[in-house]
Amino acid sequence: MTSSLFHPAVSTWFDTAFKAATPAQAQAWPAIKEGTHTLIAAPTGSGKTLAAFLSAIDDLVLEGLQHGLADECYVLYVSPLKALSNDIQKNLQEPLQGIADNLLEQQLPAVDIRAAVRTGDTPQSERTKMRKTPPHILVTTPESLFILLTSDSGREMLKTVRTVIIDEIHAMAANKRGTHLSLSLERLQALSPNAITKIGLSATQEPIEEVARFLIGNRDEHCNIIDSGHVRKRDLAIEIPGSPLEAVMSGEVWQELYERLEKLIEEHNTTLIFVNTRRLAERAARFLAERIGEEHVTAHHGSLAREHRLNAEQRLKRGELKALVATASLELGIDIGDIDLVCQLGSPKSISAFLQRAGRAGHQVDAIPKARLFPLTRDDLLECTAILDAVRRDELDQLQVPSGHLDVLSQQIIAEVACQDWPEDELYDHIRKAYPFRELKRDNFNDVITMLAEGFSTRRGRKSRFVHYDAVNKQVKARKGAKLTAVTNGGAIPDQFDYDVVMEPEGHFVGTLNEDFAFESLPGDIFQLGNTSYRILRVEQGKVRVQDAQG
Asked: Are residues 163 and 248 in the same domain?
């Protein structure tokens, strides 16, 4: 099949690397090749990401052979997780290198396709290199995309984008982060002279038509929906302790749970344990380390420094870890090697979240995911039973895209007018093209513009006046400092703030702490982060200074 759709160098690489295309790939490639928007919904491990990327790479190969690739960005890949972004960039190298070798064997000119990652973890040297020589494929996150769209160099790089791939779209469509991304995508379309083709990738979503509308926005355009179904053979079960579950987990039941986890870990090569809080991740990792050894288990969550997270992912992939305790930071399709078993401590709270996490085991095509649910309370037991029953009846959560959040709208208006002046009516019409803002009332829009133009009053005058509204010419313009404010405050406003944990005297960043924990902490307190104990020296504004507690 690939020989009829792709260049011989591309199809040869695929046929050599894989036995055959998966159903999702076989259906998606003809649709993507038509140049229309496409949404691919398929179980975890069905090759969705490769389905999108291989088609984009083939277009670049053809463009390179016919006209030569310009130093500009053609493909934008947006991932909800920084770790997933790093993983994608690394996994791109294999097909790119294989296709380059095939071009050489077929005595065809070389096509140098560059891929790069731009996230908050990207070193400054890489960012500078990106500005001088834009990558043909740019891998980023929603927050970094917002910053790029608000900077002069970023806008120059992104204005040539032709294809946007949005991975794990279901993880963003139903929340404020997705609302923020939808406006960023509309800003990207306004910036680009090209009609951008959007490709959405998701494992579990229902109703699928709603997600397709979120993908293409509030416009009358067709979207190909490739739904190969979420139904898949799985090995799922609930683990019940011998002691009765209560409203609160007792110490006796915790000991039984850790004993059972220890046994399961010993029976499998690699085990991924999901928990719902960072605190429980650290606690479970510590107790398991006492049983199976510190060198065989560690924690992974968003509060840890990038170096620790990457080290944990690579150790698991190399088979050095027997178990990894993680929050949702490893829920999505990051390549962490072969996982034999997934354990979920506590209720995952939704059907799709459980299916996503269970799919991390047996992530390969034709493999059977194996997962075990560990309810921690009686309420958890009811929820876990209901979720397992729903999975067996092939049911999914009903996804709802929220109506536009005005705080997100305010952020994006400041960022956009900081880059160029906008006629008021055109700005309103453009915002309503984003699906979450399709029903935005003109009065609400006018109120937001008024708030951003007038700010609020204090004893020392008016504050937070970010835009200037020209009522005569109906124009919205930026005030001095608006761009800096937008860039330094990008992304959906979180429910809670995180404090940076800084090791003294070296000044190294080791992770973050929740603001509630930081507020309640005192100098001398000891806490655990990533299997290491730290003693708090002092709590400052936005930072917690610590030293190694040597234990």
From this structure: no
**Dihedrals φ, ψ of 493, to 5°?**
-70, 120
- Structural domains of the chain, count: 4
Contact between 413 and 187 (Cβ < 8 Å): no
- Rounded CA-CA distance 524/540 in Å is 14
The predicted-structure confidence for 211-247, as pLDDT tens digits, reads as follows 999 999 999 999 999 987 666 688 899 999 888 888 8
**pTM, entire model:** 0.81
148 and 289 within one domain: no
CA distance 521 to 525: 7
In this structure, what are the phi and psi dihedrals at residue 341, rounded to the nearest 5 degrees?
-145, 140
Say if residues 17 and 98 touch (Cβ distance below 8 Å).
Answer: yes
Same structural domain for residues 519 and 481?
A: no
- The answer on 302 and 434 residing in a single domain is no
pLDDT in tens, 371-380: 999 999 999 9
Omega within 30 of 0 (cis) for the link into 505: yes
Domain boundary among 227, 261, 280: 227
In the numeric block, the tokens 């730290």 are attached to 534
Counting Cα atoms < 13 Å in the Cβ hemisphere of 507 gives 0
Give the start-end residues of each E strand in 412-525: 422-423, 456-458, 461-463, 467-470, 475-478, 498-503, 508-514
Clarify whether residues 219 and 294 are in a common domain.
Answer: no
Residue 213 covered by a domain: yes
Question: What is the identity of the amino acid at 303?
Answer: S
CB 308 within 8 A of CB 282: no
371 lies in which domain range?
Answer: 235-392
81 shares a domain with 166: yes
Instruction: Answer whether residue 89 shows pLDDT above 70.
Output: no
Write the DSSP symbol of residue 121.
Answer: T
CB 257 within 8 A of CB 325: no
Kindly state the DSSP code that residue 463 receives in the 8-state scheme. E
> In CATH, what number is assigned to the domain containing residue 276?
3.40.50.300
Domain end, chosen from 392, 422, 453, is at: 392
The model's pLDDT over 43-83, given as tens digits with 9 standing for 90+, comes to 777 788 888 999 999 999 999 999 899 999 999 999 887 65
Asked if 503 contacts 546 with a C-beta cutoff of 8 angstroms, the reply is: yes
Do 33 and 180 belong together in one domain?
yes
Nearest Cα neighbor of 168 from 312, 370, 365, 333 is 333
Can you give the three-state secondary structure of 56-94, one letter per residue?
Answer: HHHHHHHHHHHCCCCCCCCEEEECCCHHHHHHHHHHHHH
